[in-house]
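@channel anyone free to eyeball this complex?
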Amino acid sequence: MQELGWIWVNGELVKWQEAKTHVLTHALHYGTAVFEGIRCYKTVKGPAVFRLYEHIRRLFDSAHIIKMCLPYTPEEVKQATLQVIQANGVEECYIRPLAFRGYGEMGIDPSRCEVDFVIAVWCWGAYMGDKALREGVRAKISSYARSYINSSSPRAKTSANYLNSVLAKLEAKELGYDEAILLDVNGFVAEGSGENIFYVKNGVIFTPHPYAILLGITRDAVMQIAWGLGLEVRETLVTRDDLYLADEAFFTGTAAEITPLVEIDGRKIGDGKPGPITRRLQETFFRVVRGEEPAYEGWLTYVKGGEV
Ligand code: PPE
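replying in thread with the prediction:
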């Protein structure tokens, strides 16, 4: 990966190469970590972080679910995020706060391991490539089910939950697809390996109920943008057949932004090209994140106005 200058580690800016941890870090062995993925976009008023407040809120919610006490306040996390963006001098970046059970005792009980907290930023273009944003991607329903709600809390963005995503992603790629779609243990559509999913049928937008999924902040943004455009959005139970018979489908996520889905399990979605509603949402979304839609200005935190 392309290295930048600084990573925020437990309250200080540390040189990129020196941001290291002990091999007996608890989280490395047991996945006891929570994290976020946030994007900062270039706007005419300088770099702006998209929905920073909601991402910090979700980080604290994830920590609460796994009984991890974060050593900083939400305001400190906000200031640290703005500080690390400024220190690296980037106009656009992906931001990764990670809180993990560190070095202390081995064994499953994490209570003797302090919580370490880091925030890194890097330049991350289109998640599945520029062509994916323009022309859409091909996905496969995974043979791996999303974790059961009483197994590992899919609502929490924990590192441990991502092994499930890693297995699904590897399988999809090995079979020649761009991305995996995971069903829940009851067989209903849940989400992508790192995205939420939507489909459009007869002008109405549908997305799975928020049970066995990560409650995506882009998912929420897309729902609000759709309502703002006068479109109807329904949260519902979704089957694979709903996807096969959809007029349009797309993934949403901080990394994936709005990525059209043009083929699922070898079946074309609609006419096999990104559909008009997907395009409209995508165009509006990119204007929103770049500060070109005054109605959504409240979703942006300007790095320069952040009093670091
Ligand atoms: N579901 C999953 C499983 C998921 O990982 C993400 C984000 C989402 C839904 C969408 O959430 P939101 O970003 O709040 O809209 N996945 C992150 C990690 C991607 C990675 O490869 O790492 C992301 O998009 O940042």
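from a first look: The chain has two domains: 6-122, 130-289.
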